[in-house]
Every structure is written in C-alpha cells, then in structure tokens.
Amino acid sequence: MNREKWKDVKAKILDSFDVINQYTNTDDDGHGSVEIIEFKSPAGEMKVEFYERDLVLDKRVNYSNRVGSGVTVDYVYSDDEKTHNFKVYKKISGVWELIESPSFVS
What we know:
Blueprint: H1 3-16, E1 18-26, E2 32-41, E3 44-62, E4 72-92, E5 95-99
Antiparallel strand pairs: 1-2, 2-3, 3-4, 4-5
C-alpha cells in the first residue's frame, strides 16, 4: 500500500466509523513512523496501522576478530525513498489479533 491509497482508506474509516483513538508514533532512530487508528465497526473493534520508513540502502557490519570485541551494525538510509506497510487488527477477548488477508496486500 502506498501513501495515496492510505489517505483514501484513512478518509473512508474516519467518515464511516466511530473513531476511538487516532495517533502517530515515531521510531527512536527517526527513520520511521506509524499512524494508528482504532475504531468501532460492525465486526467489532478494529485497529489499522500504516508504517512508513526510510528505505535501507546498505547495512555495514563492523567487527573485530579479537576475543570479547563487540559487533556494531550501521545502516545507510535513503533520503527520498520510503517503504510502507499496512496491518489490520481485530480485538478478540481484549487482545489485538492480526487479520491476515490477501485483500490488504495490494
């Protein structure tokens, strides 16, 4: 799912259902964010999450062959390219359960 399709889905949810909670969280490293909307639908309480992160271009592993030395991983992120992910959850017995459906993939 891309940003434009997310805007359409978000608008339909906000217009059609009773929104319980809506918020945005950012990653600690500053390279991603997630928009979350919780709402009541005829199927029960639902939650949608839209993740947007900078594209990882390269991953560099720094290590030494000495005993007891540490390993660090440095990521190189794109300045203009993003990756997107979309997840849908349903509240079942007070627990958010991921709904896996091919219709949400496209």
